[in-house]
């Protein structure tokens, strides 16, 4: 998304980057563009200011929702259309059967203080800056493993990793496992059956982060979600 004339195919009005921190939306009331918190359609020009790392700004356009996202110094529009084939053709996410051996107890070692780290994104040139809070060590398939743990959005830990299945039976950009908070002694349940895909596994238009450096398991984690099919849009 850039300055330009602001015209976006199949969207009413104009949507353009006004300055480094602002996206300007111009629409007539008949366009049906409704800003967050508003009860009536926009009639004129309004500025929105998405922040990097913060929730995106969601703008209603009829039955669609336009997500305005900021990633570092770039902006993107995602159109969430309930009639899109990616939704209407969706019939579930393939996953391995539950494996009791994929449920292990890990040991969380916190850092002296949380660390803001930089990780690349699936889109070249973009970066994310999550907060790393420590490391989780565990044994899986007889092999000792260690992962940098990120702060969970609603508590707990987030383990974002690749393994020997990545790019083969699972998405190449990695998967994510969310855990509960560790116990007082650092014990944390690592249930790899709950390993999930990130949005980038489902669409080429996501800007997901890649795993932190070193977060690659040298074994195949055949547990949790596998690579989902993408509908043929041709």
TrEMBL record:
Which top-level group of life is the source organism from? Answer: Bacteria
The molecule here is called DUF1684 domain-containing protein
The species this protein belongs to is Pseudonocardia nematodicida
